[in-house]
């Protein structure tokens, strides 16, 4: 991805002149630039990213006013690239060292944020990210050879994408506890501002899925950043009565293919 940003003319009309900083952290599959008040994502059309920026635009529009997300400012296609512009939410992402200094507050904020998201009315959500959809996408990615097997979690190092997919099919849960999910609920995708989570970002995979699709990734992210004790506190605060430990393992396995 080019490290300079040239905006399409329609976006230049809606965004103020600014100095854009290229963000090099994150795994969204898109190039990200930020200014003081805005963020622009740029992604090649086609290929196999986690999702298209058009999908993220649609989800931002639906989520706006329901939960805290960036305001969508514009979307354009120019040449072989998509451009998505949105407001920048002030604060620090939940993996920032300054946020991790207050682990008990953080796990409480994360549990509350996901409970609120998961409480949105299922019947109103137009985006289907349930297992039939996600397993079909996983099969396509495996067949296309685009899964990065070198990025598998430690316990699956040395395995193949085909082997992981076959296990997903063999151990598929019989039922899904469908709620509105974030879809990539790792710590960097929660923006903390003081005593609140002021924003959910990178929502291109948001939609109806089993609640464990979110809980599994937040639990894993907390384990890596703070340790197992705080990851377990997060599950307690979210509500143990809603949690199936086998499903947590399953959805971490599914995430390996995306």
UniProtKB/TrEMBL annotation:
Full protein name: Aminoglycoside 3'-phosphotransferase
Family: Belongs to the aminoglycoside phosphotransferase family.
Domain Aminoglycoside phosphotransferase: start-end pairs: 34-248
Domain of life per record: Bacteria
InterPro entries for this protein: AGP_Transferase, Aminoglycoside_PTrfase, Kan/Strep_kinase, Kinase-like_dom_sf
Keyword annotations: Antibiotic resistance, ATP-binding, Kinase, Nucleotide-binding, Transferase
Gene3D superfamilies the UniProt entry points to: 3.90.1200.10, Phosphorylase Kinase, domain 1
